[in-house]
Structures are given as structure tokens and as C-alpha cells.
TrEMBL record:
Domain of life: Bacteria
Alphabetical list of NCBIfam families matching this protein: gcvH, PRK01202.1
The gene coding this protein: gcvH
Protein's recorded name: Glycine cleavage system H protein
PROSITE patterns: BIOTINYL_LIPOYL, LIPOYL
Length: 131
């Protein structure tokens, strides 16, 4: 399993959020999640301008094994999507915390970030799952 970057926050459902210097939040799925799903073959992206709610489905990733909702860690408006994933969904498998980001949200409420798991808490959750 790859190292969990220290600048991310997580949902228990394995999505990550990175707060950018602009205050916007980049969202993706964890390396653990992509490993469970296996080779991704399709990503259904939200639309730019879509409103997303924290904890609600905003995108879908599909592998040969399963389809899985991607939940938004925060509420706000989608301002950017990683359209490169349409042609290369496997980018998420190759670089879940980098080039494999899925969408960017203009945050409605910064307080929501406090509800997310720290990298250490997320690592603990994964350890508990393994036992």
C-alpha cells in the first residue's frame, strides 16, 4: 500500500479531500479503494456547475469487478473535473493521490473539513479493517 499523504483528509468510505491554496477542495479515492476495486474501466464524472452535498454520491468509478459511488467529502459547487479520466480511468489505479483526482469543489462551508478523518485516523481505520 502506498504512503498516505499528510495533506489529505478522508471519509470512512475511502474518498480523500485536499484543500488547495485557493480554498477549493480536490477530491479523489484512496489508494486502498482503488486496490479493492481493481483495474478501473470507466469513470462517471459530475458536471461542472453541479451542486454536491457532503456524504452524497457525486461520481461513479467502475472496474471489471464492481461499480462504486464516489461520495463528496464536502458540500459545494463542482468547478473542475478530471476529464482525462474519460480516456484513461486507470490513471486512478496508477496515481490515486495525484493525477488520479476526480473533481474539484468550491467549498460552501469550511467547517465540514473538521468532520473528515486525518491521515493517521484513516490509516487506523484501514488497520482495523484488515483485522
Amino acid at each position: 500500500m502506498s504512503e498516505i499523504p499528510g495533506d489529505l483528509k478522508f471519509l470512512k468510505s475511502h474518498e480523500w479531500a485536499r484543500v488547495e491554496s485557493s480554498g477549493r477542495v480536490t477530491v479523489g479515492i484512496s489508494d486502498h479503494a482503488q486496490g479493492l476495486l481493481g483495474d478501473l474501466v470507466y469513470v462517471e464524472l459530475p458536471g461542472v456547475g453541479d451542486t454536491v452535498q457532503a456524504g452524497n454520491g457525486a461520481a461513479v468509478v467502475e472496474s471489471v469487478k464492481a461499480a462504486s459511488d464516489v461520495y463528496s467529502p464536502v458540500s459545494g459547487t463542482v468547478v473542475e473535473v478530471n476529464s482525462a479520466l474519460s480516456d484513461k480511468p486507470e490513471t486512478i489505479n496508477e496515481d490515486a493521490y495525484g493525477e488520479g483526482w476526480i473533481f474539484v469543489v468550491e467549498l460552501d462551508d469550511k467547517e465540514e473539513l473538521n468532520d473528515l478523518l486525518s491521515p493517521d485516523d484513516y490509516a487506523e481505520l484501514l488497520e482495523d479493517d484488515d483485522h
